[in-house]
Design goal:
181 residues; alpha+beta; 2 domains; four-stranded antiparallel sheet; three-stranded antiparallel sheet; globular
Length: 181
């Protein structure tokens, strides 16, 4: 095969550089094929982790659903707030926190909220945007509110109340992973 390249080479280009270019192109094709195969295998493996971690069609993110309740609320019964997470690393971190109930008291949920109900969280007229959800231990007071306070002041969200729609619920306690049909 090397002789064939020598016959077709352009003036001023060496056979070694042509061979290197061909090997590079071949390597890139192999990497693309392997990457696609590994991606498929990873999606298939993740889909089997739990019923709540449902794989969607190709090109879309996989989403897991979790819930938290507010602690320390004396006047109202606790209501679950269900939220979606589309980051596989965060999904595993949240599962670890839920499994270790003693740690769940120190770790809380934060993220940006959007006004509007979601099918997985119909009780509340707002929801956490999945791509903004994160865990925290300490956060500034300006983003703290209970779901009930947000519901009561929904028109003020994004202004002086929860600037930038950032919500960090200091009293949140992760409860469980939720299976959403």
């Amino acid at each position: 095969m090397l002789r064939l390249w020598k016959k077709q080479r352009r003036p001023g280009s060496g056979a070694a550089s042509q061979e290197l270019a061909l090997k590079g192109a071949l390597l890139m094709k192999i990497k693309a094929i392997m990457s696609a195969a590994m991606g498929f295998a990873c999606v298939a493996a993740i889909a089997c982790l739990s019923p709540a971690y449902a794989a969607t069609t190709a090109g879309q993110a996989t989403v897991a659903y979790f819930s938290f309740v507010q602690t320390g609320m004396l006047t109202r019964m606790p209501h679950e707030f269900v939220f979606a997470v589309d980051d596989p690393v965060l999904v595993e971190q949240i599962r670890d926190v839920i499994a270790n109930s003693s740690a769940s008291a120190d770790v809380h949920i934060a993220g940006r909220i959007d006004i509007g109900r979601e099918a997985y969280n119909e009780e509340w007229p707002f929801h956490l945007v999945p791509g903004t959800v994160h865990l925290f231990r300490n956060a500034p007071e300006v983003c703290h509110a209970t779901p009930f306070e947000i519901e009561e002041h929904l028109a003020e969200v994004g202004g002086a109340f929860l600037p930038g729609n950032e919500w960090c619920s200091w009293n949140s306690r992760l409860v469980r992973e939720v299976a959403v049909p």
